[in-house]
Amino acid sequence: MPNILDYIDWRGDLRFAEAPFCEVDNLIFSWLAYVDFGGVLSGDGPAQSIPLAEAGRRYAATHDPAEMEDSGCITRTSILLLHRMAQSRRYADVQLWGYVCRRDRDQVEQFAAVCCSCDGGCYVAFRGTDNTLLGWREDFNMGFMPVVPSQKEARRYLERVATACSVGLWVGGHSKGGNLAVYASVNADPAVQQRIRAVYNNDGPGFLQAMFESEAYRRLQSRIHTIIPQSSVVGVLLEHSRQYTIVASDAVGMMQHDAMSWQVLGGAFVYVQQRTRSSEFLDQTLSGWLAALTPEQRGRFVDTLFTVLDSTGAATFDEMSKMGFSTLAPMLRSLGGIDRQTRKMLGEMMASLFRVWSALLSQQLALARPAATAFPVKKEK
């Protein structure tokens, strides 16, 4: 089935004046946010914007092809996306500006965003989690912290963008970028909220329950669009409003998080009625497990997990993968240095996860038995 690259081939000859912004354009701009525009775009306002086609030329001129090929999967496909967009009438003249990228180990923050002006409006694209351990640690922190640094930064960024331009806004992102889009929009100044046309959370994690009980969330709820693939894992983490749409994907399991696998037909996604059983089962398992843990226990689990991972000296998961078995020794030493009380807590938490998983599996098997007995197999005489 076609994906967003095929959409560019099909719709790329029509400018936004001829075919208005749609949900597929949203995903394309969200994926574009994974490109490292450092040295290509400035962090200034729309007066310093450049056409997307020019950004593509500058990127190609300043990046080695071998380096681009060796980049992570998401980065590599986002670079391909930039190239294809730059060659199309639809996206070549989109104005890019306001690029920001920051990583702060002390604050445990990974944040990036870029603005895409088109069709009389501006799409504010927040980058999702990159392949750094820092980025993933901040994601895990969402499970026990009311607010993480990148969420605060996303709100400030959105309000700066709203001050810098006067047009209507779309706000979105993929993965953690979708979470940041929702958080920033819900917590923005009411005057900024009035200018938001739509908010797109493309398979991003949810929030702690308090978010959905706020008046600010209810005020913006009708404009928030949550889109997940049928076997979503990331997009059903934590709490969601349950008002989401489900898109078909060509990939299997967790690989459906890759938006390049999402199926597109014309100017819309190919939707399905329900998630896969594996996605629902994992959702129930993790939700049940997290509900059994206090915020303090979740925090200690995350601290311990990333202390072990950091002991390898790797900054990214790609580096860990290349190091192979050489990561085992420092990780084992790190585990051995954990105090007895923490080891006991980790053991109890893993046992709790296993109990939740076992109970849900038993329920699934019990539900499956009546269906199996409804079609008895005839024995041969």
Task: Provide an overview of this structure.
The protein has 381 residues and is an alpha/beta fold. It folds into two domains: 4-275, 3-Layer(aba) Sandwich (Rossmann fold), CATH 3.40.50; 292-366, no CATH class. Helix content is 47%, strand content 15%. The protein is built from 16 helices and eleven strands. The protein has helices at 4-11, 23-32, 52-62, 65-69, 73-86, 89-92, 133-141, 149-164, 176-187, 190-193, 215-220, 277-291, 295-310, 317-323, 328-336, 340-373, and strands at 50-51, 95-104, 109-118, 121-126, 168-174, 196-202, 224-229, 244-247, 264-265, 268-269, 271-272. The protein has a nine-stranded mixed β-sheet, sandwiched between helices. The chain has a two-stranded antiparallel ribbon with strand order 9-10. Strand 3 (109-118) and strand 4 form a beta hairpin. Mean pLDDT is 85; it is low at 367-381.
In short, what is this structure?
This protein has 381 residues and is α/β, with parallel strands linked by helices. The protein contains 16 helices and 11 strands.
CATH fold-level topology of the largest domain: Rossmann fold
Average pLDDT, all residues:
85
Beta-strand percent range: 15-25%
Please state the structural category.
alpha/beta
Would you count the extended β strands for me? 11
Main beta-sheet annotation: 9 strands, mixed
State the helical fraction.
40-55%
Query: Can you identify the CATH class of the largest domain?
Result: Alpha Beta
**Alpha carbon gyration radius:** 22 Å
Shape: globular
Whole-number tally of structural domains? 2
Distance between the termini: 47 Å
Helix/strand order: HHEHHHHEEEHHEHHEHEEEEEHHHHH
As residue ranges, the low-confidence spans are: 367-381
Strand order within the widest beta sheet:
1-2-3-4-5-6-7-8-11
User: How many helices does DSSP assign?
Assistant: 16
CATH architecture of the largest domain: 3-Layer(aba) Sandwich
Pfam family, one: Mbeg1-like
InterPro entries: AB_hydrolase_fold, Mbeg1-like
Organism: uncultured Anaerotruncus sp
Protein name: Protein of uncharacterized function (DUF2974)
